[in-house]
From TrEMBL:
SUPFAM superfamilies: Pectin lyase-like. GO terms for molecular function: pectate lyase activity. This is Pectate lyase. It comes from Canna indica. InterPro entries: Pectin_lyas_fold (IPR012334), Pectin_lyase_fold/virulence (IPR011050), PEL (IPR045032). It comes from the Eukaryota.
Amino acid sequence: MVIKLQQELMINSYNTIDGRGANVHIAYGAGLTIQFMQHVIIHNLHIHDIQPSSDDNIRDFEDRWGIK
């Protein structure tokens, strides 16, 4: 299974993303963002060929965006 994200996937604290039992790829689109979080488990995912966003803003704190 290939998952192509249209925009970044923001991961919050206390979450598990489990790809066991399947061949899961996050590819050819946006990626995952894990920042300022606790207790996150990501298991058996293939993350590759992530494309940069055309957006000029990036997250530089939990609730604040900045310019690249």
